[in-house]
Amino acid sequence: MPLWNKQSRRSEKEHMEHEYRSGKENHYDSVAEPEDTPDGRPRLVFHCQLAQGSPTGIISGFTNVKELYQKIAECYDMEASDILFCTLNTHKVDMGHLLGGQIGLDDFIFAHRKGRAKEIEITKSEDALGLTITDNGAGYAFIKRIKEGSIINNIPYIEVGDHIEKIDGESLVGCRHYEVAKMLKEIPKGATFTIRIVEPQKAGFANIGPRSGPGAGKKASYGSGKQTLRLKSNGTAAVEEVDSVRTTAEENINLLLENFMGINDAELASQIWDLAEGKTNTMELAEAIDNSDLEAFGFTDDFIFELWGAITDAKSGRGKSVNNNNQY
Description:
The chain is an alpha+beta fold. It is 27% helix and 23% strand.
């Protein structure tokens, strides 16, 4: 049952309306686009808004997700820790458009800020809660999917996009998705626990979204490009052409992560694909994983075998279909 005090919808709306109007003018559309980098390469520029409503900001100079959040925070005079996650080309909490390890060069970024916190008491009446967990790459794990008919699906106060902040008073801020999924899995069947979640702020305005581009008044075509900026946790970033084979493989790797571990992580899927480069069999992939920072995940031999199958199927054009039926 819910343990939080309900807040006034009117006060929330007034707060968001104030947020929308309180930005410094020189942070937004009137800013001159950045010059080239010192090595002569053009600096990539992205447009963004706060999902609950804001002027359009201009963001550049980042190479990973943490740096992106910091740039958005600087643009809107807030703390980077206020950002739960970002979506691409929609202000809605749409996990199909979640920003992961790459951004299309013409994608429009929407940042979702922390909203109200909720504490809910749950009895684990079944083996699985029915959650798929992901994280924002900056310390917040949140719910990406809720299985229909599951325990969590029958609790109306828990929604996709909610950040899992605490379990039984223990803070999970800074934990990776697999750590949170493991903790939820290890709660005994029949046990009762309290979960504290933080929802994204609700949109305060109906007419927010990418603005029309300059010139003849034609609306810019966001999210339709053929190049992406691939972000990596080690601080490097690279512009790449969209690779359909890689995309298929990473999608299937992500589904395997969901099946085996109850997590969803586009960047992790990308790392696995990179580690498989030049490998000729499962043993070589397993050795590469053991010698990387992915060793901490503790992938089983069966899981690595499935990974190798997804990768080789994508390379051969078969495109493996993975069943999604194992959540926490």
